[in-house]
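Listing S7. Sequence submitted for prediction.
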Amino acid sequence: MPKAKRIELDPELMELEINQLDHKGAGQAVVRYEHELVKTHNIKVTIPKTLPGEKVRATVAWPHAKRSKADLEEIVEAHPERVTAPCPHFDLCGGCVWQHWQYEGQLKQKTNFVKNSLISQGFDPELVKDTIGMEEDPWHYRNKMEFTFAADGSMGLHEQGNFRNIIPLETCLIAGGDMKNAAMEISAWVKEYELSGYNKDTHEGLLRHLMVRQSFVTDEIMLGLFATKAPDADLADAVEQLKERIEQNYPKVKSFMWFVNTDLADRTQAEDMHLLSGRDFIYDEISGYRYRLWFDTFFQTNPVQAQKLIDLALEMANPQGTENMLELFCGVGTFSLPFASRVKKLAGIEIVESSIESAKRNASDNGISNTYFLAENARHGIDQVLEHFGTPDLLLLDPPRAGAGGKVMRKIGRSEPKKVIYVSCNPETFAEDIKELEQFGYRLDQVQPVDLFPHTVHVECVAMLEKIESN
């Protein structure tokens, strides 16, 4: 029997009430839909740039489906915390999806997000404190930005919902002023010399990405251009002119590099590096410790709020100088160095070998000698460290967004540290992870969300779990 043909209807203008936000920060509404050609059904509609409780008119793309996206046409009843987004690129850019929301409202939503994540795993939401926001104006907070070149050579960020389209930038309100100006200088240079950008469909073109990072403490700037070939003789004049412009106008640039990347993957990776000026790293500081940052070094992108994360972790752990400490996903030692100065000895595990080498160098640069760093995945590294160090008194983990995973968390439970400090950038995987520790006798003591990324949906949190002493 032939399969019934699916009926598709034209987009339709509907009036909707926003009842929640999805994980990307867009508003969602449920509407009962009736039409003579399809069975009456509910449509779950997603409408970007709307807020909970708002009534809107929006064009629903697929009224015949159970789920549909929609284009916002009119705000009928606005949320009392709605504000005018200050960035001229807000309508298209996928970077800061909550610029239209008063900052205090953003913080309340992030607190609720953490609470709901804990509720889903059976934890008491009252353990979650109010999200700590930025005390000063929550703009220009990022110390690293990555921009993409379109095929025509224009530079910008990806369009929301359309990763293949690049929005040319006039400004960026979350980047530091010096970073933004240096990036705009390079964008102007590309246009002046009519250089091509990389076409993701044909895999042709020269320039792929521009990475800019700046230390908020030392003020040093790093620039990294990613291209499909080296700066050869054909580019010599153009590159020399760019070097002169950067050196004359941006004395804070202490590292300027040209990277070759011919891989099809759309990310800032390098097969080869050509140093145009300065050194291949810059210095940054946090908690009074100095770090060397290379182009691929992971370092907290909001240093002001990152300092609060470190302070909270130290406060919750309350080290007394006698503890053996184990740190998982230690990176280049952002948490390791402040803790190593306060415990007897610290072992850090990180799968990225270059980060481990950086952690060792950073410890040496800061005169810290009671650390041991191991390049290994967390699950296997725990066994190696326990064999040499014994049971840790204190364990800290700061995993990626995917979380540590059940196998790692069960390894932590079996290693029986007295305290576990969990630094998370994803409340959902955090809640799933700590649920694994309940069977080993751990109690969640407190959770403190911290806003490292204003005007986005992301929220970090620091939590402490303690081993309950059995009678």
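Caption to Listing S7: primary sequence and predicted structure tokens for the chain studied. The mean pLDDT is 93. Residues 316 and 356 are 25 Å apart (CA to CA).
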